[in-house]
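Batch manifest, entry 17 of 40.
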Amino acid sequence: MKQLHPIMFVGTGSDVGKSIVAAAFCRIFRQDGYHPAPFKAQNMALNSYATPEGLEIGRAQAVQSEAAGIPCHTDMQPLLLKPQSDHTSQVVLNGKPIGNRDAYDYWRRGERFAMNGEQIDFRKEVCAAFDRLAARYNPIVMEGAGSISEINLRDTDLVNLPMARHAQADVILVGDIDRGGVFASVYGSIALQTPDDRKCIKGIIINKFRGDMRLFDEGRRMLEEICHVPVLGVIPYFKDIHIEEEDSVALATKNVSPSHTSPLTPHLSQVSVAVVMLRHLSNYTDFDALERDPRIHLFYTNNVEDLQKADIIILPGTKSTLHDLYELRRNGCAQAIVRAHREGATVLGICGGFQMMGVEVSDPDHVEGDIERLPGLGLLPVSTTMNGGKVTRQTSFRLTQADHVSGKAYEIHQGETLPFGDAKPQPLALLEDGRADGYFVSPQCMGSYLHGILDNASFVDFLLKPYATRINQKAEAFDYQAFKETQYDLLADHVRRHVDMQRIYQILQDND
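Output type: structure tokens
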């Protein structure tokens, strides 16, 4: 195949659809016979993923690599910032945490400053990661971050136009017409660039269009006239294609109603599953498979009354276990979860949620913050101690209570969880290297460190077994992996229909 220039999708703002558009092009290039790979120099997100090497990257690039049909790698996303509070973030470089950083200090000092006594040049690190990736794949599908017009941060920007210049990438600006003001946001984003950066922008894509496409024909012509950049496509808004999202903004669109009624499957008696909404909730893509399962009605809540209506309550992962545990005790959710379990509800904890289900969580070295110890929910006879080490790895598992239940998952966590007092070990699962994971009290009370465990149909069947008599027996287990592959193809088809691929290929091969 011909060598193509790298292509970078940047935005007029956050949540305009850059990640989804980049995923679409990863799949399009793969369909067209190329060997693409995604790249985002720096990301800020709590929703992360473990690579096959046991390192950590943002979830969006893991999704894009899946769309491209290749294993994810830290070179696809070398710098990850995981917010721990409104002012600090854990810094993950090339898949490994290297310390915490104050946001003001980070953005003011930019690419060079000391962490843990070592001088680190972040710009050099992210450029080296791109170079390694570009030597192995064609083309590189790059993604910017936020808005490209944050001119106050231009000198320390590692991810947008400075990265495009290093990569010699063709830049496509994505604007969200659904939020309004698309003319001002697109024109302003281009006008605020330096002359050299403006030359990098080779096209515009208008995203999330609703209504009759013909109504924007004049708008398209006007944008090209005032911006002197071609509009390469207008992509309609869609609701029937489901791609995992990384930004916490997506949580606002999640279902919050405990109602069992499903307009799509009114003939089924669904099991009601509540995911406890935590302030620092992470890896909420753990529940995407459950959202699509016709046997399940899934909703997110921190409402005490709604928790009482759930058949199954899931305590999810969190970046700040102790702070979220404190909040659950303050708002009454902790007591409501214990009461619901006593009255027959299943409670499952994943990662930080597993830690919360124990007798206590302690942080003597202040790894997470200023809270040294809190009592847990007391549903599992375990105790967790936070420490500076971080476990990140992909693994296979097999349940100890059901030999036929197995699958693949991944770990991203801090802290060590052990049986409390004289409690005997009762692991939920055995991992491929012989290690034990989690704790099992009963099919209606268990916890695990395994993210992605709910992507495995056999484990979901195990979770639903106590409610089998209420589920229509014709409702089949949901194959999430096959579902995701279908969604990538649908996304690629949707985008391909509404962008000028011939012109994009011309731009990516143009030597001028």
